[in-house]
DNA sequence: CTCTGAATAGAGCGTTCGTTTTAGCAAGGG
DNA sequence: CCCTTGCTAAAACGAACGCTCTATTCAGAG
């Protein structure tokens, strides 16, 4: 066996949660999809469905963080880095047939009223992503507060645009928001303080 | 009887869908909450659960549109109008104990894979809200394309910030995004063309 | 009055839910 | 050899699911 049963369960659960949400995904379905049996699932996750979901969301969160980090590091200019994130998200979303959206949103919204551990894991994932954006901006010379506020905005806007893109089955919302976010970032650079040399760049829009 | 049974069903379904999503809300629960019986529900909605959800989401969409319209019309400056929306959303969200979020997001995400009519209604609601913002910007002298792109961004960002605020149980994401969106809108006004007299206003930040 | 159709009320259908329980299997140390 | 340990397999539990069905109530038209 190439991958461990536990890992297969986590990966399958992550994909199913991303597509169908928490209540919409059954334990038996997860087991079937992971080519495992119900006994195995409860063996590795005595905490039941919620424990599986927590592990799966944590996994998805780290996976998305890696994607984000890659897109951010691929561009020197922070504004272009943000549009690059949006383009990447749009492309992946289209490829999946508009169904593989944000891996935490659906599960988070469903478990808000409860005192589940799930929302806590979702909050950690969100904060982690904001941290990635914030660090990138700090490295580009943004002030601590500007970086934090922009990071909240970037992650929030991408999150919302992703939902809009899924519902309308179009890349346009994500691409548009990516452009506008870049403009917002540049509005800080214009009056920026202590920016590294050359960071204002050639102002190419693509 | 003050309100009709049908209306009670729609209102109860709308609130439950907003809080628990589509799969998480049962027909019997809707009937109980609406002080109706299962027979009444199927009498008014022969289409079953999905038909109830469609009517409920449509209702929620119009309700939210009214809130949006009110917040937008309350301010002359479009930038301040946007922050006003964010503040209003943040306040309402806090008052509800962080559970009454966007009325369409949860239901939309859960039914994406299916060919349900629900996602279509959600798309209509989103487009309607964007239209409200876009019209406001047009009235303030923005170009057609700028208004459209900004409207997509504003609605998307508010959507995402609302989710973030719910998950982290804090008004801060919504308020921050509201501020940044205002800045983005002003970045157009600064180089704006053909703005109505006085629309640049006194530049107060609150 | 009778008749009709809208509206209400709820039992019960088959299915699936999350979970528990019991049994079976292969590997390894005594 | 036995016996523990880690893991798999499957049957079964009570509860809840969406939905169908029949029975009942009630208002207004003829």
Automatic annotation (TrEMBL), chains A, B:
Residues 3-63 form the HTH tetR-type domain. It holds the Pfam family TetR_C_13_2. Residues 26-45 bind DNA. PROSITE patterns: HTH_TETR_2. The keyword Transcription regulation applies. One of its GO terms (molecular function) is DNA binding. Keywords: DNA-binding, Transcription, Transcription regulation. This is Transcriptional regulator, TetR family.
